[in-house]
Specification:
heterodimer, A: alpha+beta, 2 domains, 10-stranded mixed sheet, two-stranded antiparallel ribbon, 12 strands, B: alpha/beta, Rossmann fold, 6-stranded mixed sheet, 10 strands, 23% strand, disordered N terminus, binds adenosine-5'-triphosphate, binds magnesium ion
Chain lengths: 420, 238
């Protein structure tokens, strides 16, 4: 016998009430924790995605759309811009780096991005095997692309027009030269190649264009592209070539003041700040999450109230038991400690089961919905904010037990026994 | 109202004892005891003691203060005046927590109907007695105690599965877990039929004799008188 066994015995003795209280607690804790877990992972993910990108320069339109398309790869781009137009930024003294990207076709639903190797080094992506692309039609696969398609170094594939099936560009096969290590960002779901490859594929094939070398030709019409609404005409030469966006990293904080204005003054160009747009996005999302969290707080408070009522009620029918314990030699302190422990155990059970349920449901959510999974949501990680629930719920339990505990402390032994 | 001893014993009576002369420690010694309740004296006991191994019956009509006296002896109810010594220790001046623990270790208490902690099995009720005073008892010891009250096969039973008499016997076994020097019982047989009352009386006497504890029983149950060599008759309060 010890105080824990004693407390457990009482909780078992009132199994129905105990279960109900735990259930309420679990529900409240799970709701709060689910919101906290998802919110944390979304925030983490977002900050990972925009890490190293201070400014995105692209075609005019909605800045949020530009960021969603260029950085998060979840929207159609606002259009294309001539590479030459953006070129001035690369030489600007306030710019540490500027990497262009051009959205190309897709393979098995994974987007092919034409860019420069600097994109990967800027974002700390490392090769798992193979090497980076050196000439046109060489491709490096994101980790998830390699896993999903089974393609590996040495394999070749053809891009498909659009993102979800379309015309295959059989005349321009890509060769896989490298595979990236997982980054936990959208890079895992992308295929990287040179800008020239993207420009080349969108050429009408010509016998004279040798594969493997950047072509330097004028070119004519090319098929409509839903992702490239602004481009009706493309040039394969660097001078006339178009890109979707330019990722800029500042050299100094001063750039944040000057560069966006500089860019926006130019016709057809807009500058969007990933941090700003992400914050806007999270604020919209945050409102929904806050509402859910408030719901969880209310449920937990109701659970605490229910624990209080249950303990207070139990105390009435328990006066005799407490009197026996006191006669057997238990001090008031021991009686109070035992009551508080019961509340703590209730709280702990609600907490553990609630957190487990939260992680389980987040994981189930991720497994049931591809989009949730692809957003990088998993039930397997613990959000630091979750840990606040531990002291909060335990304190709530103690608080709920305080009133009954005080009454137990004040119990008049002599009159209780005289009535028995 | 005055308590007077029906059966006199050596060393008892109203003779004020000279402290150095007392060689043996009594199980109970009460001096100048009085209890006022609502401005009324419900109990007055100038000098009364029960020796180690002694058996004393407290008799008296309803309201004469029998329960009050037992509660004072157990340190549950503070007297208005006077001192109480249990096994040589002055309990009236102890701090409450110390008195609680002292009671748990030195005094066993059996009630008329209030017997067991309902959330706990029979065996756990016995374990509880050791636990609350920070003692440990082996299961073998506890089973032995249950055997002595004839309930060794009910160790796992829940209190609601027991009859009044069985619960009463478990309560007696539990009162003996910490080998008390004094066993107090308040109307232990009043709710029982003759056979059960007989059995409980036998048990109380035999078990206390075995561990050399004093036995003080408050009752108006005449069936119990033959078992006691000492009797304290409390008068009706006026
Ligand atoms: N909590 C209390 N407050 C005030 N007076 C009390 C209280 N409990 C008992 N009394 C009074 O103290 C007196 C003695 O009560 P007590 O319970 O000790 O008598 P008793 O001899 O045990 O009676 P019974 O045989 O009915 O159990 C009674 O007059 C009773 O009214
Ligand atoms: Mg009484």
């Amino acid at each position: 016998m010890n105080i824990v066994r004693l407390a457990l015995a009482y909780l078992r003795y009132r199994l129905a009430t105990t279960s109900l209280n735990i259930l309420l607690l679990v529900f409240g804790v799970a709701t709060i924790a689910t919101v906290v877990i998802v919110a944390h992972q979304i925030r983490e993910r977002v900050s990972r995605e925009i890490a190293g990108i201070d400014l995105v320069v692209g075609a005019e339109g909605s800045p949020l759309q530009l960021i969603l398309a260029a950085v998060f790869q979840i929207d159609a781009p606002t259009g294309n811009i001539p590479l030459a137009e953006a070129e001035f930024l690369r030489r600007h003294p306030l710019v540490a780096s500027a990497v262009p990207i051009a959205m190309g076709d897709s393979v098995s639903g994974f987007r092919i991005i034409g860019t420069e190797p600097a994109l990967l080094s800027e974002r700390n992506a490392r090769l798992a095997r193979g090497r980076l692309w050196e000439r046109a039609m060489e491709a490096v696969l994101g980790a998830q692309v390699a896993r999903a398609t089974g393609l590996d170094v040495g394999a070749s594939f053809v891009g498909v027009h659009g993102l979800h099936g379309g015309l295959a560009h059989a005349e321009h096969p890509y060769t896989v030269v490298g595979v990236l290590a997982p980054t936990g960002t959208v890079l895992d779901r992308l295929v990287f190649t040179s800008l020239e490859s993207v420009w080349l594929v969108h050429e009408r094939p010509r016998p004279s264009v040798a594969r493997g070398a950047p072509a330097e030709h004028e070119h004519e019409e090319h098929h409509e592209h839903e992702e490239h609404p602004a481009s009706s005409e493309k040039r394969i030469s660097r001078e006339g070539a178009e890109i979707t966006a330019l990722f800029v990293r500042y050299r100094s904080p001063l750039a944040a003041v000057q560069l966006p204005r500089l860019v926006n003054e130019r016709p057809n160009l807009q500058a969007a700040s990933p941090a700003l747009e992400a914050a806007r996005l999270l604020a919209i999302l945050g409102f929904g999450l806050d509402t859910l969290r408030l719901f969880g707080v209310v449920v937990t408070a109701v659970a605490a109230l229910s624990v209080l009522v249950a303990l207070a009620h139990a105390l009435e029918e328990r006066r005799a038991d407490i009197a026996i314990m006191r006669v057997l030699g238990a001090t008031r302190g021991l009686v109070v400690r035992e009551l508080l422990l019961e509340a703590l155990l209730l709280g702990a059970a609600g907490l553990v089961l609630g957190l487990a349920l939260a992680h389980l449901s987040v994981e189930l959510l991720a497994r049931s919905f591809r989009q949730v999974h692809e957003a990088g949501i998993t039930g397997g990680t613990i959000a630091p904010e979750e840990l606040w629930l531990v002291p909060a719920v335990l304190a709530l339990g103690v608080l709920a037990a305080l009133f009954p505990a005080v009454r137990a402390y004040r119990l008049d032994l002599a009159s209780t026994l005289a009535r028995a | 109202m005055l308590g007077r001893e029906a059966a006199s014993r050596e060393g008892g009576g109203g003779v004020p004892p000279s402290p150095p002369a007392v060689a043996t420690v009594d199980a109970v010694r009460v001096r100048g005891l009085s209890l006022l309740r609502n401005g009324r004296t419900v109990l007055a006991l100038a000098d009364w003691s029960v020796p180690v191994n002694g058996r004393c019956l407290i008799a008296g009509p309803s309201g004469s203060g029998k329960t009050s006296l037992l509660q004072i002896l157990a340190g549950i109810l503070p007297p208005t005046t006077g001192t109480v010594e249990i096994a040589g220790r002055e309990i009236t001046s102890m701090p409450e927590a110390a008195r609680d623990r002292f009671r748990g270790r030195t005094i066993g208490f059996v009630f008329q109907t209030l017997h067991l902690v309902r959330a706990l099995s029979v065996l756990d009720n016995l374990r509880l007695a050791a636990f609350v005073v920070g003692e440990r008892r082996s299961d073998a010891e506890l089973h032995q105690l249950l055997r002595a009250v004839g309930l060794e096969d009910r160790a796992r039973a829940r209190p609601f599965e027991l009859s009044q008499g069985e619960a009463q016997r478990v309560a007696i076994a539990r009162a003996l877990v910490n080998r008390p020097r004094l066993l107090l019982a308040d109307e232990p047989t009043s709710a029982l039929d003759d056979a059960n009352a007989q059995r409980i009386a036998e048990l109380l006497v035999a078990r206390t004799a075995e561990i050399e504890a004093a036995l003080v029983v408050a009752t108006h149950d005449a069936r119990l008188s033959p078992w006691f060599e000492q009797k304290l008759e409390l008068g009706r309060s006026s």
